[in-house]
Specification:
By secondary structure, this protein is mostly helical. The protein has a single domain, classed as ABC transporter involved in vitamin B12 uptake, BtuC. It is 74% helix and 1% strand. It contains 15 helices and two strands.
């Protein structure tokens, strides 16, 4: 029995969203796709390297500010600005990670938070560059005029064109992350996660691998922040605040850290729940917290993790039943 190519199915479903005709659907889908990349970047640290970062928003914010400054102030094109946002985040992740990986467990987590707060303070106070408390409003959309000449998608709105660009970029980032976690590098990260002392004993440079994972995660977080700044039409200090770091952490846990697509599923669930709850009650933080607690009890391995475990059990049962039916004792009993 062939497995369903879920990656292709999800991407194809994403391509359909702009043709549904609803601005709201496009808005929500764009938000989900961007924050899914943010959550997936954190999961490289959390799910594969076993590193809990409380300051991942720092690289999200650095990428957002870098891309926005280049596009708004320097008039740079979209793609070079986007890449610069990711590289700048990776550079800061290299510097911060150099110190962070020297500590373990809660001390590592608290040091990541401390560096993130430094980044937030700079964004909040450096008025001449970051705009201070007012941030950088009116970040321009990338040029999408060339898409108007394309068949089928030419008549779509500008927001729809931007969504399709985001979808393709994030899909490429997901493909790169998939190659990374399935590579020998990704397998070494899981060995370090399971037992760092044993990995070091057999000659693995634990700090070097952790630092590399930190840099890669920072790069993809910077790409996500760059896209979100454009989508939000502005970049503000809150992008780097410590509460922003909690969002991808919740998404990864909600979706399931053990599954590659878990954080993306968690991001979709988180955004949809947030949209629905805020439309019904002003007490959405309390309601959202209660719903998340229930979901975590119902899906202890995360939504994707639990569903994958269930699918695996059903698959094993479907294999086992024909084997039991063909055993000699079963035929005798049937006779």
């Amino acid at each position: 029995m062939k497995r369903i190519p879920w990656t292709v199915v999800v991407f194809a479903a994403g391509l359909v969203v702009p043709f549904l005709g609803s601005r709201f659907y496009t808005f929500v889908a764009t938000d989900i796709v961007i924050v899914a990349l943010f959550a997936m970047s954190l999961n490289l640290l959390l799910g594969y390297a076993g590193l809990v970062s409380f300051g991942h928003a720092a690289y999200f914010g650095i990428g957002a500010y870098t891309c926005a400054l280049l596009m708004k102030s320097a008039g740079a094109p979209f793609l070079p600005s986007l890449l610069a946002g990711g590289l700048m985040s990776a550079a800061f992740a290299l510097v911060f990670g150099f110190f962070c990986v020297r500590l373990t467990r809660i001390y590592f987590a608290m040091l990541t938070l401390a560096f993130a707060q430094i980044v937030w303070a700079i964004c909040f106070k450096w008025n001449d560059v970051t705009g201070g408390e007012q941030g950088l409003p009116s970040v321009p959309y990338p040029e999408t005029g060339w898409m108007g000449a394309l068949p089928v998608i030419g008549d779509l709105r500008v927001a729809d064109h931007f969504y399709l660009i985001v979808l393709v970029i994030v899909a490429l980032c997901f493909a790169a992350l998939r190659r990374i976690v399935d590579s020998p590098f990704g397998r070494v990260l899981t060995v370090i996660r399971d037992n760092a002392e044993r990995a070091q004993f057999i000659g693995v440079n634990v700090r070097g691998y952790q630092l590399a994972a930190f840099v890669v995660a920072g790069f993809f977080a910077g790409i996500s922040g760059s896209l979100f700044g454009i989508f939000n039409r502005g970049v503000f200090p809150d992008f780097a605040y410590w509460t922003k770091s909690a969002e991808p952490l919740i998404m990864a846990i909600l979706g399931g850290m053990g599954a590659f697509w878990g954080p993306a599923v968690g991001a979709a669930a988180f955004i949809v729940l947030n949209q629905q709850i805020t439309s019904y009650t002003q007490y959405w933080p309390f309601t959202m917290g209660a719903v998340l607690i229930v979901l975590l009890f119902v899906f202890p391995g995360g939504i994707a993790g639990t569903l994958m475990s269930l699918a695996e059990r059903l698959r094993l049962r479907s294999i086992r039943e024909p084997l039991v039916a063909t055993e000699p004792g079963s035929r005798d009993a049937a006779g």
